[in-house]
Structure prediction request, 317 residues.
Amino acid sequence: MVPDLPGLREVMAAADRIRSHVHHTPVVTCTSLDRLAGCALFLKCENLQKVGAFKARGATNAVLSLDPAQAARGVATHSSGNHAAALARAAAIRGIAAYIVMPTSAPAVKRAAVEGYGGRITPCLPTLAARESTLAEVVERTGAAFIHPYNNPVVIAGAGTAGLELVGEVPGLDAVVAPVGGGGLLSGTAIAVTESSPGTQVWGAEPAAADDACRSLAAGQILPSIDPKTVADGLRTSLGELTFAIIRRHVEGILTVDEAAIVAAMRLVWERVKLVIEPSSAVAVAVVLAHRESFAGRRVGVILSGGNVDLDHLPWA
Prediction:
């Protein structure tokens, strides 16, 4: 048994807690995209969220949930992506320190984003062992609270607020699709959607080149990815025990797509919907287009997880 799994009550509490600190992102539609997909799509635009990604929700909920004594010592994490910026921003809201361990391989633009929010960066070698050992040193030195980017019930509940907004704004959805890497967004979405809209299925979307969640769900145990190679860099992380337990309980299934389909879907959304999304977001759109039989004629919500793109290295260039 995995303890402390959040439920709808925790997601609703998170929504109240973070409401004044994050965007209630819009839901958009596109007739031409509907025709291509063979269903009615409702795109939840977390690419327009604070820090450009849904990660703002979970990080903000986690920081605002700390008791005053713990908060005074600050927060810490290791990340080279959206969670780093989201945690630094959330710490700034509360006026506390954010200690971010970042690998030396992290793009300069991402380091700049963390520093812009006041995050205190400690560099490390670009290996998981180095990230974890450096973080342990930082936590030991500062007493800061480690905020895991996804395997944390408060972070999961915060991520679930995007799905809660979606089903509240668009009633009668037959399905909701969310990308899955570590599983924070998918597990939070699954809780919010299945418990507040019982007739709505939740599906995960994953690159075939990083299909550990799909394999894990089929095997009934976590099967981590080993050096996955996918353009969807936000989905290279393997599931945690909390996210896996929630996904097993609430998710209908996980569908995969190849790299060409991901890039094509990303470009399609840029061209037809006029939205800047990152490859990880495009995976959810690509799944609906590639698995038409699962969604034909239905009302389908799609969570666009983020829009942070290196404009000098677009995948179709």
